[in-house]
Amino acid sequence: MTEAPTHVRTATSERTEPDRSLEEPTRCPECDGRLVYDPEHGETACEQCGLVSQEDAIDRGPEWRAFDPGEKDRKSRVGAPTTRMLHDEGLSTTIDWKNKDAYGRSLSDRKRRKMERLRTWDERFRSKSAKDRNLKQALGEIDRMASALGLPDPTRETASVIYRRALEEDLLPGRSIEGVATAALYAAARQADTPRSLDEISAVSRVERAEIARTYRYVLRELGLEVAPADPGSYLPRFTSDLELPETVERRARELLEAAKAEGTTSGKSPVGLAAAAVYAGALLVDEQLTQKEVGDVANVSEVTIRKRYKELLEAGEPAL
After folding, report:
1. Domains observed in the chain
2. CB of 192 within 8 A of CB of 199?
3. pTM exceeds 0.70
4. pLDDT tens digit sequence for 213-239
5. Of the candidates 250, 260, 255, 270, which has an alpha carbon nearest to the alpha carbon of residue 200?
6. Does residue 186 contact residue 212 with C-beta atoms inside 8 Å?
7. Tell me, what DSSP letter sits at residue 95?
8. Where does residue 294 rank: exposed (0-12), middle (13-18), buried (19+ CB within 10 A)?
9. Which residues make Cβ contacts (< 8 Å) with residue 267, sequence separation at least 6?
């Protein structure tokens, strides 16, 4: 068998060896000092002799500048970050419902029909399994209720994670999707220290109050969630803001609650009722005109509850005041 010529083997070996000249140098060719990249000027220079070995580096940032968040959102050409509030975590394609092109011009009839077909197929592929359809419905319910209750995005994310865990643990058989979604949002609001009362939750939910409470206890038990009892003080900022009361009322109400907690009179009582009574008592102490009905309408508690609780708070808070 004839051996291959030496020059052929040499040429082959030269082709397979990496080109060392393409590697970025790390030492200065003049003084053998360390090369440092300056991002401000786009140059690579020696830190000892100052020799510029490379310049005109590629700027991998955007070619535009923005001076406020709104301008940044308008100019940015990337999508939103992934989120647990969407069943596909925001990784799928989103086709706008407007039949217009990038320049704002209306599409022709032929392209409009094509976009309708694309939307249909995109919707089918995004929720092709029963689990995806379940998540899509539940997360939509969580977002709707959270918007009605004014809950922030972190609370919605937490509720989405709780519902996903319940779905993975197979806790839904025998229970409605809306019930488990509502229970997840109720638990997330309490965990995030932005609690809403059970009456407020049931007012925006599509299930009854008793089912929400029953499902909430079941989800907590099965998932092992640790939810501390709601603090009455966490309701004060929202109540005083809705009633347009000054900051002094909230401060006095918080002092009353802290004094009552030290006395042990808050144990076993509804935190919403205590917060409403504290707001009413704080308004009385600073001579603010406020009726029990106004507080009850905002807190969704009865006037009888406010009358009972505010007297107890005043008695417990007398030494502190």
Report:
1. 27-58 (no CATH), 130-223 (1.10.472.10), 232-317 (1.10.472.10)
2. no
3. no
4. 999 999 999 999 888 888 888 889 889
5. 270
6. yes
7. -
8. middle
9. none
